[in-house]
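Re-running the complex after MR caught last week's input typo. The corrected sequence lines follow. Everything else is unchanged.
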Amino acid sequence: MRASYLPTTLLASALALAAAPAAAQDREQPPAAGPLRPYVVPQVHDFRLANGVRVVVVPQPTLPIVSGRIILNAGAVYEPAEKNGLAALTGNLLDEGAQGITGPELAQRMEQLGAQFSTGAGQATAFASVSAVKGVFPDALELAARTVRAPTFPEAEFTRVRNESVAAHVQALASVEGLSSEAFWRAVFESSAPYARRSQGTRESLPRITRDDVLAWHRRMFAPGNATLLLVGAVTVDEARQWAERALGAWSGQAPQLSPVANPARAVQGTRVILVDRPGSVQSGVWVGQASLGAADPNFVPMQALSQVLGGGFKARINMNLRERHGWTYGAFTAFAPLDRAGVFAISSSVRTNATDSALVEMVGEYRRIAAEEVPAEELRNAVGNIVGSFPSSVQTVQSLAGRVEQILIYGLPLDYLATYRERLAGVTPQAVAALARAHLRPDALTIVVAGDLAAIEAPIRALNLGTVEVWDAAGNQVR
Amino acid sequence: MRRTLLALAVAALLPAPALAQGDAAVRLDYVEETLPNGLKVIYHVDRSTPVAAVDIWYNVGSKHEQPGRTGFAHLFEHIMFKGSRNVPDGSHFGLLEDAGARAGADINGTTSFDRTNYFEQVPSNRLELALWLEADRMGTLLETLTPEKLDNQREVVKNERRQGVDNQPYGTWLERMLTHVFPAGHPYHHTVIGSMEDLTAASLDDVKNFFRTYYAPNNAVLVVAGDIDVEQAKQLVRKHFGDIPRGPAAPPLRSLDLPPHVGAPRREVVEDANAPAPAVYVGYRVPNARSDRADATSLLGSLLGSGRSSPLYESLVRRQQVATNVGAFNFGLVDGADLMVFFATGKPGASPDSLEAALLAELGRAGEAITEPALQRVKAGQRYSFVNNLQRTGGFGGRADMLAQAWTFHRDPNWVNTRLQALDRVTVPMLRALAAERLVENNRVTLVFVPRRAAAPPTNPGN
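Corrected-run output:
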């Protein structure tokens, strides 16, 4: 045990500060803001190559670095349900070999260039992503493009990468965070909806996919008319044209006819509680929420403001409640994931096992409060001010700016979206948010998922009488 | 004082010009001063984005903790966000968030073995708010300290431990590794997060004592970076930090020096109820981050175990297919010895023994893997990382962090401007010698994680 302090130490410290009364007084209030220096959103340029590849360029020449992404409308939403994981497996296999170069050679060459390179696919798109110092970027882009145009999908690599994808799912299900998020998406959407499925495939579905499936998928989906090259950073429009021509100009092929994919939400009558057992768990992974709107919805902006108030930052309601008031968690936030015309809106957290029931009560309570009561004007202004004010910081790197522009391209938003974004957010009113909350949030028909030690938490959760209670296994089958 | 750099030729083996040290775009110019109370201040102008970053590094980390108080430096860091004389509880983050900074990315505090930092990146017209907040807690934290604040953050930190360690597959690997690589009583013997028992034991007196010992202006460096006017920033710094009294000199650490080797091979088998597949972690004592072999050390780890053309990936993942994932890194510990770790995650159902044998066999062939082309590849990757990190003014690893690190660990802000030429100086023979000296059996600690089907619940420390 250390020596405790003598009060004189405290006094000395206080006196030293009191010796400068003018300065101390001056410091009682937070300093006011000076004049805001303007931030100009970088311009977005857009053109097509003769073969149909769309090229989107955002010059940001601060440092000699470029981020490039080749984006294909070839995400998991377009794959057949029984081949769940086909799009992602194809995406993951792109860099395992391409015309004239093996996978290991490709990895060596990219590393030699000092390029960061990855390929894959999500719900909406497949991608090859590459960042590098400007001097070597065109070479890195050419290699990345080759993996998109002419991948070889070697048999041996196919089996290995499929096994790795299965293992990745097994690892994801080993944490309460992975268990609960997967169950939540599955519960919220109709079983026919791609969003109900794991975009990376599952340990059950991946073994059903063959190399022929991958070849056929690539043949059908990967075509210049279905591709966009996004270039952000130290690049001019002229350079972009040259680099794009060199990397993708000689590519030919017929783009697939794709129709929009519906992701219907599951009809919910009353609140539904889904429990997933993880014996011995010292925390529970908790999701409380519902299906929600998509990124292109006119209500996206007010919904984002609402999400910010409820759980968008540290001072947001749910974090102050669960963490700062009660100490039940390391952090609690909203998960607002707007995708193509649908998404989810939820509160999510990992909470101490023996506080799981109490945390659920607070989460449902906060959800109910924001659905029913108008957000005070100042609280809303601050929440919106945070998103608006931090925008320049949020796009300071070429990779983060590319990520934002990619969202615009994926969801078909106007190219000046970022240029007008802050203005639209700043125009959100408490009345608009309240009307949206009343119309959209359904605190009496929530989907609640809890993954944790059921021996410890099931009885207390049942005693809350939040709604019907189901127990699922990790694969989403109801076991009780 | 401004520094400029000698232009330096870059190794010519790369296919296209990469980055040269003399390139103005990748040089950080700065102005430095020391206030009468001992606070070191570094100013750096970068007007590419209208943001300003404030970043304070206190020269205190988990290595300064007393016996029985593991995790305390980090718990203390949490208390720093609970308000001070003019900042009510809950409003430190709140004021900054309202000003346009994102919690987490722009506003945060982090604790490591060697130091604790606090940073905020704000729109540049709110620079004074950030300075005011940092000065208020540096000057007056204890005035508003309450048992409730400590108890609340004690619970938060215990949850941080549950979420990051106790409830994750392989989550205990680091605390196990450290107990083997660093002897009992050595300051690196325990993790930053600490034990549940010691977190429970932390008292208000501990908080007061720690603050008075380590949180003085003369034990910190303040970096002000971004869209700033240096003269104006200097005035603001003096206004807010100038009359915080100098503290007593922090007590010197006892020597952290260690022999180059652990002494004998150590091996621990861990049955992990959270783990769905086996995993193996192999650790070695290596030269620390202040050593003249620090750059060779980090390049050695990357060469052997990072990236898809590394020998570990080539052999274990691609060829033998016993692992689904491999990696290598060192921590960059600055005193005594550093820790380098190689790990491999096995396929579900795979044999832990085969995984271990494959990993050790590959590490035994390290000398053959160290070639000129392989070294050039990892150097190219580190050059890219350097310029990539320069994109951000503040936040994790941005410009302000680089300058603060340079001062805290190397007592020279210009250290950041020597990084690229330091890479150039590392050679194949240096890496081979390092591998031959350190990647040896009597310096090796092996942890083998074996999935345990949940029979009994795992122990739940302190709950």
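None of the earlier attempt is carried over here. Chain B is about 40% helix and 15% strand. The two ends of chain B are 53 Å apart (CA to CA).
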